[in-house]
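Cross-check.
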Amino acid sequence: MDAHSRGRADEIDPADQWVLNPQTGHYELRLDHSAGQSQRPAPSHQRPRTTPGATPSGRRTQAPYGAAEPGGRDRATETAPPVPGQRRRRAAEPGDRPGAAGRRKRRPEKKSRKKKVLMWTGGTMAFVLVGGAAGAYALYKHFDNNISTIDVAGGSTGGFKTDAAFNILLIGTDKRTGEGNGGYGDKNSPGHADTTILFHVSKDRTNATAMSIPRDLVIDIPECETKLPGGKVKTIPGQTDTRFNVSLGQSDRDPGCTMRTVKELTGLTVDHFMMADFNAVKEMTTAVGGVKVCLAKPVNDSKSHLKLPKGESIIQGEQALAFVRTRHSFGNESDLDRIKVQQQFLSSMIRQMKSDDTLTSPTKLYDLADAATKALTVDTGIGSISKLKSLAGELAKIDPKNITFTTLPVIDNPAEPRPITVVPDPVKAPRLFTMMQSDTSLTEVKQKEQDAKNAQAQAQAKLLQGERSTAREVRVDVYNGSGVTGAAQKTIDWLQNEHGVTRSSNKSNAPEKAATTTLTYAPNQADQARKLADLMGLPATALRPGTQDAGEREPMTLVLGADFKGAGVPLTGPAKAPEGAQTADKQVCAK
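Predicted model, tokenized:
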């Protein structure tokens, strides 16, 4: 079924052919003229002749849910009463004002609009919005048939848990299949993991972290099993010190091998994957009417054929594909800078998909769902519209301002005299992995960092008015929330014996275990807090400033968390947002 051939014949808006069946609660596609825009049927000589199962334009199609079947009766109208959209006039009722028959009561504009937005709302990511869009329609069979699936060895078949965090691997392959894509490179290549994003969705659905993995990252690819087209399972040996992008396509590796590689790298279990090719970018950007991008300078790239002026532009189709493929016109022409541009593009696409312009347009949502389901390849665990709809419903809860794009921290490969590849940063990469494993929100961390900076600025201002606190002036109660036996007493001994913090007290176990170490203090204790933070090596995110001044002898509260490494061992802390992290709600101009 084609959105361009069905529902658009005779200038009928597809939106007017979707009507609500009050008995089932589903929207159904009506191809007769009762769902049209006019209250009066067209004269018989103007009506197109149709045969059972044919569209108004005469093209024969499969009957959708709720439409008349060839040789049979209309299933929906056989049992259902008149439904909204048919626009039949009602008879006058007692108490009606003269001329009221056939009139409809107008609903408040604000309430109607709110319901309309909720009706059509879908997911957030470019690759997963299809579920929400499809959920607005009853064409499950059609969209199901669009989706391609791969049964990965060891993959999940039960969808995803609604009461737990989950991880989806978004893979953009550079396989040159599809119309007009053969000239982009080696058309016979099985493709690589050219663009890869690990999308972590928090347990409470308030935030998400989208971590890009550079294709030129040198790592070890573990041994993996892949299912060949005939059903035979093939074991592919692992490789050491090789580029990440060969985890897909090469040596018959399927997306399951990429999933296992990411798990080996990050320590995070990858629940599902979604893979898209070049056509996905072209078709989905066209379906939503284009995506807004911003350039800090004009670009005329001879390799990608991208030509755009400085400032904002709306791009779609081939131009959108050229934008995400462009490498030599941005930054230092590295893949890392291209990743930044791709993240900016995806952020803009999320905003477009969440905009009223898309959410209130049945035509755009249909086109988006049709294009996305045709372009997507997913694992069998989420390989149906019903599962994608559920997934999109979870993702729709996340505000774009709480979707953070970041890149796996890397350094130049020290094994190369002139580095052209990268390796994980030995300090920053594990820190980011720990945050994702502990379901820590990057947006919250960024806010806490700003709060801590503000607190430090206030403390510094107070210090300018007097002398800095000495260790003997620090008053602190220490609670053990780390789960390490004796941690509070060891900390007290270290503070008192090594630094003279004699006004410290062991308050035994905290009411509950704490994920991170925190120091809570009053505004008039800011200098004491700064002193203790310096002594213990507490990160800025550990500081919790209060709003009311404390009494003269009132102590601060130090709660040791799971990040406690031992008395005197500085807490560098995992809760530090990676450099360059950006949220999906902000427009950033590519440089």
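The chain has a mean pLDDT of 76. Residues 162 and 502 are 49 Å apart (CA to CA). Passed to J.P. for a second look.
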